Amino acid sequence: QVQLVESGGGLVQAGGSLRLSCAASGRTDRAYTMGWFRQAPGKERDLITGFSWNAVDPYYADSVKGRFTISRDNAKNTLYLQMNSLKPEDTAVYYCAARLGRSVLLGAGRYDYWGQGTQVTVSS
Questions:
Q1: What's the N-to-C CA distance of the chain in angstroms?
Q2: Phi, psi for 101 (deg, rounded to 5)
Q3: Rg of the chain's alpha carbons, rounded to an integer?
Q4: Which residues pair with 50 in a beta bridge?
């Protein structure tokens, strides 16, 4: 089992930046694929970025490509999401997720562990 705790959400003006963190604890020695999802009110939970256990060739959804960057610090067991040039349509609850496997998969149902979520609100 692995536990995930997100932090770093908040209110920001359009064009601003935020960095989300996801601290992992528990069985962090296993090979996980990690990702960031987001869910806006009335919408599905969508994968916006992720990378496989070897952190090569991250996936980015078209909606965030060029603005968001996923990274990890293995020594701290922490996953990050740097969000730049934020837009009001980025407003959502952001979730960190992990799956036991070596591939980034798009479906939320394919992920085994979830954080509690952190709210990101972008004002126009």
A1: 40
A2: 170, 170
A3: 13
A4: 35, 59
